[in-house]
Amino acid sequence: MKIDLTETTSSKINAALVQARRDIGTPAIGMVLTLVIVTDEENAYDALKSANDAAHEHPSRILVVIKRVSRSPRSRRDARLDAEVRVGADAGSGETVVLRLHGELVNHAQSVVLPLLLPDAPVVVWWPDDAPPDVARDPLGALGQRRITDTYASENPQDALTQRAAAYAPGDTDLSWTRITPWRSMLAAALDQQPVKVSSVAVEGEAENPSCELLAMWLADRLQVPVRRMSSDGPGLTSVRLETKDGDIVLDRADGSLATLCMPGQPDRAVALKRRDTAELLAEELRRLDPDNIFEAALKFGVSKLGAESPAAAPAKAEAKAAPADSPETVTGPKADSAPAKPAAKPAKKAPAK
Q1: N or C: which end of the chain has fewer CB within 10 A?
Q2: What angle do the packed helices 278-286 and 44-54 form, to 10 degrees?
Q3: How many CB atoms within 10 Å of residue 180?
Q4: Are residues 80 and 111 in the same domain?
Q5: pLDDT in tens, 52-87
Q6: CB 48 within 8 A of CB 64
């Protein structure tokens, strides 16, 4: 069932939701959360489709906030709210309200959304494309226990990661981080099977893919070893190489769907590592509503070292440069383990004259 409301209010939208549920014979509310999608007209269809697919696992009330920027000064002064209410088969497993805000109402979106939130249910706010610099302080973001962004949709993903780290608050997350969950699980399982000391890491992927940066930050933070960031033609992440004294552990995915795991002393094995769509990523994030401390640690550890040759090697280089050329601290590698030089022999004493 679809109900179009023009020049309406939040109270009229609530009344329309109640009436629509009665008309289709389901007066009870069986939803577990409210998902607020903040987007524009161009990306609204794709975002709503992904949210409806994710709602099959997480039945929710979906509120799509579309801010219609007026062109003329007169239109900007006028405030108008148009809504489209969808219940039943047209809304998947929950309820959907598409809100189009015009004029001055664009700056007060939270006043429209607040009366439509489900009582005593968590709120998740999702920006599919451009997100504000500080999502936790945004008026709509402040309504949510969980705030989801996607730096992959930004013009400059590295700058977006820098902003996310500077303004991070508990409850923030990013779909670029969600994309590497299978990679992190596979690499952690590989190290569990072979508990060896990793000396360095190489992460290879598309140059403008923030998931590659986040995976490199996570590895540098957890392993405390130098991590090299290398570029490839993609798609997405293509390879991770963990260098150890017993041989390299390599997880390589060249086609975006099937990967090969190579481990020393074991035959190569094929593992499913396909690129997931937005609905699967969103459904994963909706499974947990508590702060992601691992994401916070990875984001804050490496964000200041983006573009560096090795996040963990910079301090070592600075120490080596500060030490004198003939100082013992500059000796590295095998020379550092060699036996110390014997002291020079003392000059022989002169025999007493007879």
Answers
A1: C
A2: 50
A3: 22
A4: yes
A5: 999 888 889 999 999 887 666 666 667 889 999 998
A6: yes
